[in-house]
Amino acid sequence: MSDRRIRSPRPVPSSDLAQLLLGLEAEFEVPAPFDEATLEAAENAVANLAMPSEDATQIPFFTIDPEGATDLDQAMYLEKTAEGYIVNYAIADVPAFVELNSVLDQVARERGQTFYLPHRKITLHPPVISEDQGSLLPDKIRPAFHWKISLDQAGSLGTVELKRVIIKSRAQLDYASAQQELDNGSENEQLKLLAEIGALRIEQERLRGGASLNLPDQEIEEDGDGYRLVSRVPLALEEHNAQISLLTGIAAARFMLNAGVGILRTMPQPEEKRLQEFRAQTQLLGHPWNDEISYGEYLHGLDVSDPKQLVIMHRAASLFRGADYRLIDGQPEDELIQAALAAPYSHTTAPLRRLIDRFVLLTCHLITTGESIPDELKDALEQLPGLMRESSTAANRVSRAALDLMEAFVLQSRVGEQFQAIILQGGSNKDGKESSGLLQLIDLPVTGSFTGVGDPGSIATVKLVHADPQQRQINFEIVA
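Above: the chain's sequence. Below: its structure in token form.
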């Protein structure tokens, strides 16, 4: 939840930059293109697909994703009832295409997840599955896991049903257009219900003591003959849609905990010492977190358009460390909590893009039907923590390098210019030896190192003295 992401709206047409980006792929050994055997296996899986017998095509599902998305994992249809709400959530039935221990399964285990780079994505599954036959595209009949989740009037989780069905999505929406439509007073009941339920689930999260971090994304825009970095705060509908996904992951965790089998996404509580340090930092930055409100309430009240409050949000992201995957094996439930959500939780809703979700869906469905978990699935569950750790490390390393590269590329023509910045971590000068500090520019979504002495939370004037895309490095010095 706290990873910085960088998005580019289209491949950037610079031969120099293109070469640097290709160099990243080689340096970090991202997954190679699918070989002929894997592509053939995918085509065979599509040709031999056995559709579920239960028909849910009468439900007018819709999808909502970033503009231009083709790997559509989730579709929803929302209902308001006398008792509260019903969330119909359809998740792409990737297990229908990828059988356990098949060629496709083995290749997916090697990859672990889709890798996102500024110029392209490297998919977990061959495109004929991930962006075509397995994707919940509009007006196409697709196999899916149908979660029917009941909520009370306050948005609290009630009964949950899970079936394998066929669906047909009626519409593919994008966040920006949908948000504008809603802001303009749209009568679209589904969008209004999404905002209503999303807000209730955010309140439920607050009551639990959790807090989803709303950190801006970095994006690259064309600017005449060059490019510029801009910061984009997620839209309200993006947060509300994320809450539907989190709700489903919490429901899946409940299924598996009740059955005593499965795998969860966990995160320990931050140490008390780190919490106290965070409190002190919020005071330095002029927005103190006092004892009268919870951590979640405090974060929900921050305005990330204010540079100092954005720094606090980044500091909050660093509080929660140690996210992991753990098998359910008789532990007390409080050992299996995802602390930032203040609830047990499992990755469930992105099987086209993340390996573990496919196995969670299979496990939950078997639990609901009363069938036993086969040995081959138990063996896979035991392998998943290691596989996911390895793929996440690889994906995070190349994403971080890509971000550093794009920052240096965009800023290379501005060496010598001065900027306003907030000091995140102070540098020092002991015995004549300087150590670098960390700062964030106020007018650009850039974080970089600096030389000189600065107090955390203070605002400084800094000069860009170095920007090297080849080395993926930028450096500033404090002027005043």
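The first helix runs from residue 15 to 27.
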